[in-house]
Write a sequence for this structure.
């Protein structure tokens, strides 16, 4: 067989955003802020807000169905669902199980993964391990969030940043030669450091306060660490594959803040025309942001078969990670 190896190849993607798009100007009615201030500091122009009664599972189901349709397959051939979220419908069971049920899938397994904004990268990394070890042939990976439900709408430093949405991809076992020319996931790198908890967290939970709590963030501190952490895992991907920023067709980062994205791309010498930015339309949708950006760039024709793509995220924990893949 030589150096043939199993690769996790993307065969479909899909996304969903709630109907309501909230423009920056709407915050001016109840907060001391302005559209100009928000755009200048974050690059965000609007974000989508889930309707009353619309949950993370609802958004995830829409994105999952869109991905299945895009791949041209039915749910019968899915072995596993991994759903990244920090805003589950219930404390338990996992939101993934609810989505599994709604899709009419009563075989295989489904579970949630929790790494906040890095959730989708952690979920893709986990899926890749299942496929490469032979434990699954097809996996539905979803990132879905309703962050609007954990925001303190009186805190102008956080509530303007986040939004709701969902995105999904389907990974399938494919055969590669073990080279960087292969289709599919080439390398994954994930990290976390719990000493940074107080810089970005939610001040509630079942075991501590018996409430959901609200998102709390030290924005300057998060920004200060972000670029270094992002650089760390992207450099690790280059070291593992022998590739470089010049080889990338697309850089699809977690959409937290345009200034962080721009600073990271500059430090890594990634040309600005290779950077996919959707933060202006979606705000920070946490675990949903990367798959939302992927689906946007696939649907508008930017991402094409054979393209080399770097995914990267950093989130509360802190968590951070990268996935380098060929579309």
């Amino acid at each position: 067989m030589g150096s043939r190896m199993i690769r996790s190849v993307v065969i479909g993607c899909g996304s969903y955003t709630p109907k309501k798009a909230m423009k920056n100007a709407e915050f001016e009615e109840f907060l001391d802020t302005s559209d100009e201030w928000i755009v200048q500091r974050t690059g965000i122009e609007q974000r989508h807000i889930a309707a009353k009664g619309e949950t993370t599972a609802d958004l995830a189901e829409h994105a999952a169905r869109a991905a299945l349709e895009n791949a041209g397959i039915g749910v019968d051939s899915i072995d596993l669902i991994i759903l990244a979220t920090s805003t589950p419908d219930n404390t338990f069971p996992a939101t993934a199980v609810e989505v599994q049920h709604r899709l009419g899938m009563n075989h295989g397994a489904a579970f949630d993964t929790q790494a906040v904004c890095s959730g989708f990268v952690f979920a893709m990394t986990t899926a890749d391990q299942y496929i490469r070890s032979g434990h699954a042939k097809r996996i539905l990976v979803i990132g879905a969030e309703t962050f609007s439900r954990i925001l303190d709408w009186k805190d102008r430093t956080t509530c303007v940043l986040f939004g709701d949405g969902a995105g999904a991809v389907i990974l399938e076992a494919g055969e590669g030669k073990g080279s960087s020319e292969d289709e599919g996931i080439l390398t994954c790198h994930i990290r976390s450091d719990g000493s940074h908890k107080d810089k970005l967290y939610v001040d509630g939970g079942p075991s501590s306060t018996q409430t959901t709590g609200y998102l709390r963030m030290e924005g300057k501190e998060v920004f200060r660490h972000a670029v270094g952490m992002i650089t760390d895992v992207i450099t690790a991907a280059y070291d593992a594959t022998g590739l470089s920023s010049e080889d990338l067709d697309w850089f699809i980062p977690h959409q937290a803040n345009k200034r962080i994205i721009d600073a990271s791309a500059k430090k890594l010498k990634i040309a600005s025309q290779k950077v996919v930015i959707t933060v202006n339309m979606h705000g920070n949708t946490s675990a949903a942001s990367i798959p939302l950006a992927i689906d946007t760039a696939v649907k508008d024709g930017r991402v094409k078969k054979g393209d080399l793509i770097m995914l990267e995220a950093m989130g509360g924990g802190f968590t951070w990670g990268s996935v380098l893949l060929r579309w």
Remarks:
- The helical segments are 35-42, 56-71, 95-102, 119-132, 219-241, 258-267, 279-282, 289-299.
- The longest helix spans residues 219-241.
- The radius of gyration is 19 Å.
